[in-house]
Amino acid sequence: MKFIDSTLNEVDASVKLSEKAFQGYKTIDAKKRAAFLRAIADEIEALGNELMTTAMRETNLPEGRIIGERGRTTGQCRMYANLIEEGSWVEARIDTALPDRLPVPKPDIRKMLVPLGPVVVFGAANFPLAYSTAGGDTISALAAGCTVIVKAHPAHPATSALVAGAIENARIKEDIPTNVFIHLYGADFQVGKALVEHSLVKAVGFTGSFAGGKALFDLANKRPTPIPVFAEMSSINPIVLLPNALESDAENWAQKLASSLTLNVGQFCTSPGLLIGIKDEHLDKFIAALTKAIEGVLPGDMLHSGISSNYSRKAAQALSQPSVTKLSKPEQELVSQQGTPILASVPASEFLKNPLLEEEVFGPFALIVECRDKDQMVSVIEYLQGQLTATVIGNADELIHNKDVINLISQKAGRLIVNGVPTGVEVCPSMNHGGPFPASSDSRFTSVGIDAIKRFVRPLAFQNFPQSLLPKELQDENPLAVWRLFNNEWRK
Amino acid sequence: MKFIDSTLNEVDASVKLSEKAFQGYKTIDAKKRAAFLRAIADEIEALGNELMTTAMRETNLPEGRIIGERGRTTGQCRMYANLIEEGSWVEARIDTALPDRLPVPKPDIRKMLVPLGPVVVFGAANFPLAYSTAGGDTISALAAGCTVIVKAHPAHPATSALVAGAIENARIKEDIPTNVFIHLYGADFQVGKALVEHSLVKAVGFTGSFAGGKALFDLANKRPTPIPVFAEMSSINPIVLLPNALESDAENWAQKLASSLTLNVGQFCTSPGLLIGIKDEHLDKFIAALTKAIEGVLPGDMLHSGISSNYSRKAAQALSQPSVTKLSKPEQELVSQQGTPILASVPASEFLKNPLLEEEVFGPFALIVECRDKDQMVSVIEYLQGQLTATVIGNADELIHNKDVINLISQKAGRLIVNGVPTGVEVCPSMNHGGPFPASSDSRFTSVGIDAIKRFVRPLAFQNFPQSLLPKELQDENPLAVWRLFNNEWRK
């Protein structure tokens, strides 16, 4: 099957159709939008085995992983459906009039969040379902009342086509306006560029490489009318290893971290790529155990040949830097798209001099930074760029004594983990998936969990409006029974 | 008195001090921060008459206006103090662990909003107190736990110095770390540029011209590490005049709009600069009444000579465009900094062809766009750029029949007004002061009201954290008694 790139004329026509659809979709009741999202989940499940085999064929991901990801995708649809059906997420605030106030009367003002307009979504290569065609960006935007144009990821076009078909079936079943969701192909960068630059597009969601996300961010900011881009990009997810934890538990942490960093051939944006420890006998013991554990993991097929060749190239680049020592055994002859887990180490003094060593090596690669002492460890943490996650491993007492370290690293990441691994992004209200640049383009938002909907809305205030012209969420009688800040008091 | 620009070395040193102060300030209890904000209000009031006379001298604003603005400024300090003392604004979410969940256990995750870091604030010329040194940007950032560097507006340096002194007194009285607030002078653009480009600065607040705000926005996005800029910039605040309202009430609306657009010599960002009506006898009657009312308003002193010469230039430019008719009488000889109210009209067909006519003329200037019919009125609304406000004036019935017009214009503005005037920005939870570009650089945020604090914070998730290392807002016992989403349920 062939997937043909949209022409620039088709891009223009699609955005115009999306904008037209937005005019209808934004006024549709939340209940109806919720039914649409649930129908999308049902239709994805109805694709059954065909979706499984297609996604596995296009991504080399194992069946268990695809099944899990499908559950996550349909779970997200139902989570946003529940959120908008309940309705309080619109942050309704009502301040009633004080006509007798002096020196001037106070008018009646009410405010809530409203959708921005057509949103362009670029799916991720490594999550063909949960961060792709019907992934978190698409579903949170549709939940908000935005229309969505997805540019299918060129690495899994058939999977994307199947999911797009499911969304279209759901749309028809639930009688949602045509073109609320539009699916385009664009292996060529020109298609994505034209979408981001189109004057009727109001926001962009992206998950992928730093180069890709930053390019879209720059395009969006250079428009005559800039638009927000939420790009989830690059992270090496540092792990700080405190000495006592290694003394008492080196073997256990070596096993856990080896599993985390080699899971799905290291193709997670939260894969731990940087381990920071203080050079002593316990770190040596930990390194020996981790090296052994990693050497025991077989090379696996990566998502596609572009990813695997990029992995080889970036890993080789890191390994060729001054004072970097490769710890794991030389690679075997690899079959085409495989990626071998690699562990390397570097003295902190060298790490602090060489920005190349902070670049993400997407795949099962980790670099251990060996620090002379705690002061140098602090310098390494201070030096780090923004991250999706940061992890601290330590015994109960030493965590308390290293509050300064935790405080410092908290400024570098969107999610902090104590004595755990960063892989495994729970979909729940408390999740934050995002972080200081370059982890994401705007640390003020998350791309996972209910709050991801906030990326695609803006507040709109209504002053002196007659009841009949107000959205239901702001009417006196509160027909949707949402939580509202009513004259400075929470009411339902 | 002379106010000397900071050198670039002083800028660098100031930002470093601000960052150092942030490390302490961000961990200070909200109660203590609240006391600091209240002390700022007290100290501003304690400046008494000196602040009044200085601000009046530097801005030409009348005493009543300065008194009102001082009340608004101190009111904002106390409003944010109340907000952070209550504490629920941090959007705490807690999801407790499910260690027995299959296929993988669910970890304990908690999330809240945390401050970004040092914030640079550029005050507004037209609000020497409420949008300036201790204005909404500064106080909401301090409330959030950010440190602040204010670049004093060169048009009112002495006022700014007095207020900076009040903040410093409050800081000392409440035992807040040194350099939490830093005050710099920088009439030269290089000072502002160096502040926005400094790697330790994490966000920018700005109120002023489009040229100024856009320049800072571009600088911030071109940094190696881009940062968010909230710039409140340019708006002509369209008023849609529906025919029946003019038929029944032309004289009344003419009076109200004349007052609104000439208030304080039109120097409000919400001043109504564009009136859109359908050409008929009622519009003619309204125009005649508005012309007469505006001619009855005496020229007033503008904020400073730069503003008045800019007003003359921009008004002359608009009046010289094809088919623009000046309706108000020729100006008298003006004394140096005065601005005369000016009313002009243009056929919609011309307005739609000439982008110069959509540019803000900051001052008491309004352009009436005369439409052939409702279709053409819709075209004019569709054509408009983003605005802070949009107003619709109509009788009860015709408002209902013009839902399409209200729906359309709602996409163009941050605040909609029915049968009122856009000037007068209430400080209350429901206020939205911001709007689609170019009204502001990010329509997802407001710069007035409690939600303005959201510009300077980001979510941070804590996974598997021991209780003693969690912020109080996220501890099991909820010692601050804030509202939290606890396992998907609101609890306090």
Q: How is the topology of this model organized?
A:
2 copies of one chain form a homodimer.
Chain A: H1 8-25, H2 30-46, H3 48-59, H4 63-86, E1 92-95, E2 109-115, E3 119-122, H5 136-144, E4 148-152, H6 157-173, E5 181-185, H7 189-197, E6 203-207, H8 210-222, E7 229-232, E8 238-241, H9 243-262, E9 274-278, H10 281-295, E10 300-301, H11 305-319, E11 325-326, E12 338-339, E13 342-347, H12 348-351, E14 365-371, H13 374-383, E15 387-393, H14 396-401, H15 403-410, E16 413-418, E17 457-463, E18 484-486, E19 489-491
Parallel strand pairs in A: 1-18, 3-4, 3-6, 4-5, 6-7, 8-9, 8-15, 9-14, 13-14, 15-16
Antiparallel strand pairs in A: 1-2, 2-17, 10-12, 11-13, 18-19
Helix pairs in contact in A: 1-7, 2-4, 2-6, 3-6, 4-5, 9-10
